[in-house]
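Table S2 (continued). Query chain:
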Amino acid sequence: MAEVYLRRLSRWQAEQQRDAVADVYVSAYRSATEAERRDRRGFLARLEQHVQHTGFDMVVADTAGTVGCAYGFRVPRSGEWWPDLQEQLPADVEELTASGRAFLLAELMVLPDHRRRGIATRLVERLLIRLEADLVVATADHYGDGGDVADGGDDARNAAAATFRAWGWSRSGVATTRAGAGPAAGPVAGPGAVTREVWIRRPLR
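Corresponding output:
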């Protein structure tokens, strides 16, 4: 296969590349059990909101077109992202959130034909390498079709959990989020809610 190059996009560039990123999103999740994950319009609506968040950052993987993407932003200081966490939030995590020093890995995806090549790992490393945050947060579907399924495949029930552990992340608890809304939607209860694992990592200094 051709060599894959990583590019960091500015907020403006991310908005310009929204259709290409949406194409990757639809293809990356086409085998997911949640139909909402294949909702292109829903993803574009979320992306439009996410690019407005403080500290938004995006990295894409290219080889004759976009084949992967990772992006995130600062967790809101209000702590509104955490209310439906089913386990007690560690005091230091609350403090880091309130002080604006927590970053949310909101989306991570790689096209099926380019998985198992370490692209997802490279995307996350590039996204976080210059991050000025003391805590990184992500969520993954409990059955394993989130996180790094782009590299590991969604055929293993706990692929995401295994990947986060391999990356040195630690499981912080379980939260309820909107079905198909992805890691960045934030915990919420009610119809269509799904259970997701919350994973955290303190960047290496």
